[in-house]
Structure formats: C-alpha cells, structure tokens
Specification:
Number of domains: 4
Subcellular location: Cell membrane
Number of strands: 22
Largest sheet: 8 strands, mixed
Membrane topology: Multi-pass membrane protein
Protein name: ABC transporter permease
Low-confidence stretches: 177-194, 627-642
Organism: Bifidobacterium callimiconis
Helix content: 40-55%
Structural class: alpha+beta
Strand content: 15-25%
Number of helices: 27
Shape: elongated
Keywords: Cell membrane, Membrane, Transmembrane, Transmembrane helix
Mean pLDDT: 80
Distance between the termini: 49 Å
C-alpha cells in the first residue's frame, strides 16, 4: 500500500520538476537575447538585408510586369496585330472575328502627317479610334475625342509645342510616310488633306493620353540612346475621316484573344494561348491574302478600263460590218489585255505579317529589365546569406565558449542535448525571424517604392505600378535564413556537447604557442616593434577570425568598386560614343524629296565643315531563316511570337562616299570593319541579342515589310543605340530598291555651344524632320542617367551594412575572447590609446588586406554584373577609373575606423579585477 501510494507522488514531483526545468531553460534563452544584444542585432540586420533583397528585388520585377499587364488590360491592348502589304478591308475583319479563339477584332486607320512643333517640322501618327475600343489610349487629362476635328495628344507633344488643352493644331499628309509610321503637326499652314485619310482643317486638343504602343519616357535614357526621331502619337474620332479616308483600306488589324486578359502578359500560359489563336489565323491567311489581292487588282483594272469607256461607246456606234470597227475592237481588246497584264505585274500579291506583343519595343524592354532585376535578386541575397552564416557562426560559437561551464552544469544535471541546445537555437531563430519580418516589410514595400516609383518611372510613363505580394517567396526567404543560421548554431554547439561535464566545467586550456612564419624571416621579425610582433602573432593565432574580417572587407570593397565602376561606365557612354566612334557633330534627316535643297543649304553654310549624304531609316532585326536566300521578299507567313526582334537604325552609305571621317567602325578589339557589297555591319548590342558574330546571318525587315537575309560582315563596337550599316550596292541588291538619300552626317565648326546652335537652326527649317546634336545628347545624358545613382547609392548602402555588421561582430567577439589579455596590459600600465592601438592595429591590417583583394574582385564583379545587365540600346563596357578604386578603398577604410571607434568604448569598460580573477 505504501509503495503504491508513493509512486504516483514521485512521478508527479518529477513532472513538476521537469516543467520547472523547461521554464528555466526558456527564461535563460530569452535572457540570452538581452545579454548578447549586440550580436543578436548583428544577425538581425544581416538577415533583414538578405531577406529584403531576396523578396524586394523579385517583387520589383513582378511589379514592373504587373504594372504593364494592368496597363494593357485597361487600354484593351491587342494580343495580335496584322499588317498587310495591300491593306485590309471589312471582309478581312469579318473573317478574323470568326476565327476560333478571337475575342474582338478591329480595323485601324492611321496616317503619317507633318506639322511644326515650336516652329520646327515634326512628325506624328494620327490614328482613328476604333469601334471595338481596342488599343484605347490611356486618358491622363481631359477627355477622348468624340466628334470630328477633335484630337488627343501626348504630354510630350504639349511640352514640346507649348500648347495646352483647348488649343488647335493642323496637320498635312506625309507622302513619304508608310503604313507603319506617321507624322504630326501643330501649325496653321498645313496643306489641304483631300488625298489624306483624315479631313483637313484645325483640330482642337481635348485630351492628354498615353499611347499603349509606346510607354517609353521621352525624356528618359532609353529614348535618348535610341537616336530615333520624335514621332508624336495623336488620336481622333472616326468621324474625322475624310470622304476618301472612310473608303481607304485599314492600315492594320488588331485582335484580342478570348481569356488572355485574365493572364499575365508575360506568363507562359498567356503566350501559349495567343500562339494557338495565331495558328488558327494562319489557317485563313492564304485565303484572305488571295481575296485581297484579287479585290485590289480588280479595282485597279476597273479604274484603268474606265478610261476606255468613251472609246468603247464610239466604236459601238459604228455600223456593224465596218472593217474599221473590227480593227478598233481588236485594238481595244489588246489594250484591255495590256492593262490587265500591267496591273497584275505592278501590284504584288498581298502578304500578311502577324505580330504579337513582342513586336512592341516597350513590351520587350520591360521583360528584359524585370528579368535583369530578378537575377540581381538571386545573386545579392546569396552573398548576404554567406555573410549571415559567418556572422552567426562566430556569434554562437563565442556564446558557447562563454557558457562552457553552464553547459557542463546542464549536462551534469541530466539535461538532454536538445534541452541544452535550446538556448542557442531560440537565440538564432529569434534573430532570423525578427530580421526576416523586417526584411519582408522593407522588401515588399520599400524596395519596390524606390525602384519602381523613383527609378523606373524615369524610364517608362506607366500610370501606376501595383504592389504584388508573393507570400510564398516572403515565407521561403525567411525559412532559408532560419535553416542556415540555426544550422550554424547546431554546428557551433555540437563540439561542446560531445565533451564530458567535468571537462566542460574546467576552463579551456589555451592553445600552445607556435613559431609563426614571420619569425623565420629574421630581417623582418627583428625590425618589428613589440606591438608589431604581438599583432603579427595574434593574426596567425586567430586565423579563422582573421579570414572572416578579410572576407567581409573584400565583399564590402568589391560591392563599392562595382557600384562606382557601374556609374562611371554609364556616364562615359556618350563621351566614348561620340569621341571614339560617331565623330560627326550633327545628324539631320529630311524627306527624300527635300534632300537636294537641304544639301545645297548645307554646302553654303559657313559653320559646316563637311557633310556625308546617306539614307537613314528603320529596320526590324530578327534571326535569319534557314534556307532563305538573301534578297527582297514579301513575308507571307506569320512570325512566331517567340522570335526575338529588335528595332535598329539603318544607315545606307552611297557607293561614292566614304564613312571614315564620320563613323569609325571597328570591333571590340579595335580591328577596323570594311563595308562590302553584300553584307552589313551590326553594332554590338544588337549582335548580343541574337548571338551574332562575323559571317552569321541576320534578317532585316523595312517599314514596307520587305525582308532580306544579310550576312554580318562585322560586329562593331557601339555604346548607345542599335545600328545597321550597309553600302548602297548591298541595300539595292537586298531590297531591290534604289537608295533614297534623306539625311546628312555633319561636321561643324566651333565649340559645343556653336554646334548646338547650328543644330537648333537646322531644326527650325521646314525641310528637316529630325536633327540630332551630339553635343546636346552628351549634355542631356548625365541628367537622364541620374537614375543610375539610385542603384549606386543602393549598392554602397548595402556594402556599408555588410562591412559594419561583419567588422563590429568580429571586433566585439575579439575583445570578449581576449578580456584577460587586455586586462593584463591595462594593469601593466598601457594607456587608453595604447590599448586601442593594441587591438585596432590588427583590424586595420586585416582591413587593408581585404581592401587590396577587394579592388580587383570588384572589377570582376562589375564585369559579371554588366554581363547580366541587358539594357535596350546600351552596350555598357566596364570602365573603372582610378578614382573609383580610390573611393571604394577610402570608404572601406572609413567603415573600419568607425567600427574601431565604436569598439573602443568596450575596451575602456573592461573590468580588470573581474577579468583577472581565477576562473576556479
């Protein structure tokens, strides 16, 4: 009875005692956070930064893509567009609407027009709003036009012209414009628009809009480096069509796909859905092309035969049997046959060109840059994860050393390994979770704000960027750091937990002294001072800690070197472009019909040194198709939405002219490129997009959809813009068309101000469509690329955090480990400054080693970053000047000094009596 009654009571006491033990362990774990607050803060900061960059940079990429997707949905942006070489009619639109998977289809009428903006001849595209409200311009101010002679324009047009809502403008047709381009005007002396698509007269500005087909900020870096002339988009109501314009064929057809709006425009599901419908359209393509060809040729034949009606009536009035009537009828039949034959030969067969959203430059730019930021969001967190591992391993290892006797006591009292380890696991996990939550808040809200609102808004004119939260990534980022850091805590505890309690409760024996390497070099060792010898021995004594300091400073210095080098490389793009390659001062573009008059004016201008007449245009680059022969062709097949495409400037050099004084074409290693009569020179950025090298093939498509496969004769070093250069013979052979000289490269006299003044004077003359001043572009470039300093500042801040956290953690650990040694030298009479120097000299020396190694590592990191950056139209070549290295080294050294100053207070507060008393 007694035994039976005692057993439950004993079990109850053990259970009560176990609960008390666990409570004590948890109290001890939470107390450790307060006692070791500085180490805890270091782990929190490094985790916060790592999680912030992992979640934040990936969030920025999603926000950019999401912003464009929302914008496209709001404007009912087309998923597929079709351009035909003979235009499209209502039968084509009706056929497209019946294609399986097509949601809406609409015909678009647009025209190239010319006008004056601020006294200068300018270009624009006037487009009639369609009844399906597809590609609807985004309204920023005012309203959309809903009556004739009302027009909506972009903010850029208002800024450049000085006009505002309520003002009027006029425009006249541009006879040289293609179906794909247009020109705009704002003067009151436009020609009559009888033969144009739109009615003539004054148009009242009723709204300010964003063109969904072009969201590039006109004052941003992408617009600056493109080098293309300004084309102002304008929109009118379909009631503004002229009498003939309403009967004209559609310029293009635009289509939306059923269910595509519910998907993100960059997702694979979206691309697959659009590609399926594109293939369905291909099934009716040949039929509609034949129908359109027959319709256009029949109309042309009818119009030509109408001229023979009078003769036919005269012949019909002649009496039957008259030999002259028979001969006349035969001649008339022969004439009719000749007309039909000539019309058939003169009018080519219709060919459709199918394009998806990838043909829109802005679409591809956003895709490229969001992918670039996402790649950075993987690389930088990996660096901080490694640093977090080192910091946490150092901090937890030191905590375990300090708690050596306590761990021995716990083991002697019967605590399990898990219970003994609980304190350190809770400590590390609490630091990770705290840092992770802070990092998620900063990464999901802070970084997207900085990058999208402050940085990307300078590149694009999207009205807003959504805040898209990926909770899975936010949680996974925190878990990643928790696993790594708690894992390091377990590793740090493992060694001590394997020892016996008796061994743990005794002080750890110091390591035996060893002869270091420097002691074997007598002429060095013998000339070192006492403190120098102590410093040297301590460096070799604490190898792991020395290595961590060096790694931290190397990372800090490398980041800053890469950041400063990136800024310098970007800011020297324009000076290098116009100093090494484009040696002309001005590019002036006219209409081909106006070029002779413009050339005569330039020849008589005293401020002009020399000119190079040439043809300047625009082409679309794509991968050459296997089996195609070089030459002109009308593309009759749809283009795959997955094919890479790039818009480039085309320069055609007349055979009797030399480009050497205006454009220095050479490869990256300086080898000159000679233009031949069959190939083209392609600039480096375009070559990178398609992976081209000399001898490869590239397809060029002009504004009239003529495509020619060309051979690349050389890849030219070029820093800003995508350019294709070819000779007159090569162009005429490839496109089966005569050269149409419409531009001049000009070398001018005087300084930069004089050259800019000359360009402004030319821009004010009616015959010029576009005038680009090299000097002005160089001045504007620094302002436009101020966004790069946001990235540079971000990198420097990250480097500072990295350096401070690592150095402070290791410095404080160093002091706590050597309290007894430092207390001894204080007792021996070392003054404060001497004690500070005793410790800080080691830190300074290790930092110096880290800086020396970090500088070349930074140059290598910059090369890696540049290889991953893919900025449209920019070929950033690493260019690190001496002051970039000097700034990075100075800041790294400054961080070391600041940390040393901060840890000096810990040296001053060492309790000599407490540190020197016997541990036993």
């Amino acid at each position: 009875m007694t035994t039976t009654a005692t057993a439950p009571a004993s079990s109850k006491r053990r259970s009560h005692r176990t609960a008390q033990h666990r409570t004590a362990l948890w109290k001890d774990a939470w107390r450790a956070i307060a006692v070791n607050g500085k180490r805890f803060a270091a782990i929190v900061v490094i985790c916060a930064v790592g999680v912030m960059m992992l979640c934040g940079l990936n969030a920025v990429g999603r926000d950019i893509r999401g912003g464009l997707d929302d914008f496209f949905d709001a404007t009912h942006m087309h998923d597929i567009s079709i351009v035909s070489t003979l235009g499209l009619d209502d039968d084509d639109i009706a056929a497209l609407r019946n294609v399986d998977g097509v949601n809406k289809a609409a015909g678009v009428r647009s025209q190239s027009v010319t006008t004056k903006v601020d006294g200068r001849q300018s270009s624009a595209t006037v487009t009639a709003l369609n009844d399906q409200k597809l590609d609807q311009p985004y309204l920023s101010e005012g309203r959309l036009p809903n009556a004739d002679h009302e027009i909506a324009v972009t903010r850029q047009y208002l800024d450049d012209s000085g006009k505002s809502i309520g003002d009027t403008l006029t425009f006249s047709p541009d006879s040289t414009g293609s179906v794909a381009t247009a020109t705009a005007s704002s003067d009151d002396n436009g020609d009559g628009n009888d033969s144009g698509t739109f009615a003539d007269g004054k148009y009242t500005i009723v709204g300010v809009v964003i063109d969904p087909n072009d969201i590039v900020n006109p004052s941003g870096p992408l617009a600056l480096v493109s080098g293309a002339k300004t084309v102002y988009p304008m929109f009118v109501d379909d009631t503004s069509l002229s009498e003939t314009g309403a009967d004209n064929p559609y310029t293009s057809a635009i289509i939306t796909v059923s269910g595509a709006a519910a998907l993100n425009t960059y997702d694979d599901d979206y691309l697959t859905k659009v590609d399926d419908v594109r293939q369905n359209i291909e099934h009716i393509q040949s039929t509609q092309e034949r129908h359109r060809t027959d319709t256009v040729k029949a109309a042309a034949v009818d119009a030509a035969l109408a001229q023979l009606d009078d003769q036919r009536q005269t012949i019909a009035a002649m009496p039957d049997g008259n030999p002259m009537k028979t001969a006349a009828e035969q001649k008339l039949d022969d004439a009719e046959q000749q007309i039909r034959s000539k019309v058939s030969d003169a009018i080519p067969n219709a060919a459709w060109i199918l394009r998806d959203r990838s043909a829109i430059t802005s679409y591809e730019d956003v895709k490229t840059q969001s992918a670039m930021i996402t790649r950075l969001g993987t690389m930088f967190p990996a660096l901080f994860l490694i640093i977090a591992l080192l910091v946490s391993l150092t901090a937890i290892t030191r905590m375990v050393e300090e708690d050596r006797q306590l761990i021995g006591t716990y083991k002697a009292l019967g605590y399990t390994r898990g219970e003994t380890m609980l304190k350190y696991l809770v400590y590390s996990m609490a630091a990770c979770l705290t840092g992770g939550v802070i990092g998620d808040l900063l990464g999901l809200a802070g970084l997207p704000f900085v990058f999208t609102r402050r940085m990307l808004s300078r590149i694009y004119v999207l009205p807003e960027y959504p805040l898209l939260v990926n909770w899975a990534l936010a949680v996974d980022g925190v878990l990643l750091f928790v696993i790594v850091i708690t894992g390091s805590a377990m590793v740090a505890c493992g060694g001590s937990l394997r020892l016996d309690p008796a061994e743990l409760m005794r002080p750890k024996a110091p390591k035996a002294g060893r002869t270091i390497f420097l002691q074997r070099i007598g002429f060095v060792w013998n000339h070192l001072s006492f403190l120098g010898k102590v410093t040297a021995r301590n460096l070799f004594r604490y190898k792991s800690r020395a290595l961590m300091v060096i790694v931290g400073v190397v990372g800090c210095t490398a980041l800053m070197t890469a950041g400063f080098g990136m800024g310098n490389s970007a800011l020297t793009l324009m000076p290098r472009q116009y100093g090494e390659i484009s040696t002309y001062d001005i590019m002036a573009v006219t209409k081909p019909a106006d070029h002779d008059d413009a050339q005569k004016s330039l020849d008589g201008n005293d401020n002009v040194t020399s000119t190079l007449p040439l043809q300047v245009g625009s082409v679309t680059l794509s991968a050459a198709q296997d089996g195609d022969e070089s030459g002109s062709s009308q593309s009759g097949s749809a283009q795959s939405g997955s094919d890479s495409k790039l818009t480039a400037q085309l320069m055609v050099i007349p055979d009797d002219e030399s480009i050497d004084d205006y454009l220095d074409l050479h490869t990256a290693d300086g080898t000159p490129i000679s233009l031949d009569k069959t190939g083209v020179a392609v600039t480096a950025n375009a070559a990178k997009t398609f992976g081209l090298s000399s001898g490869d093939g590239i397809a060029l498509t002009d504004a009239m959809a003529n495509t020619a496969d060309m051979t690349v004769t050389g890849v030219a070093q070029y820093y800003t813009g995508n350019v294709v250069v070819m000779t007159q013979t090569a162009y005429e052979k490839a496109f089966d068309a005569d050269i149409a000289v419409n531009a001049d490269l000009i070398r001018a006299k005087g300084d930069a101000d004089a050259k800019i003044a000359l360009a402004d004077d030319l821009a004010g003359q009616d015959q010029y469509l576009s005038v680009v001043s090299a000097a002005k572009q160089q001045r504007d470039f620094a302002k436009s690329f101020a966004i790069f300093f946001v990235m540079i500042g971000f990198i420097v801040v990250m480097a500072a955090i990295l350096a401070v956290v690592v150095l402070y953690t290791l410095a404080s650990t160093n002091i706590s480990e050597r309290e007894r040694e430092l207390a001894t030298i204080k007792v021996l009479g070392f003054r404060r400054r001497e004690v500070h120097g005793y410790v800080n000299k080691e830190m300074m020396l290790l930092s110096a080693i880290g800086i020396v190694i970090g500088l070349p590592c930074g140059r290598a990191l910059l090369g890696f970053l540049v290889s991953r950056l893919d900025l449209p139209g920019m070929n950033i070549v690493p260019n690190v000047q001496w002051f970039c290295y000097a700034a990075a080294a100075a800041l790294a050294f400054l961080f070391t000094v600041l940390v040393s100053r901060a840890t000096n207070r810990s040296l001053d507060r060492i309790d000599m009596v407490g540190a020197l008393k016997s541990p036993e």
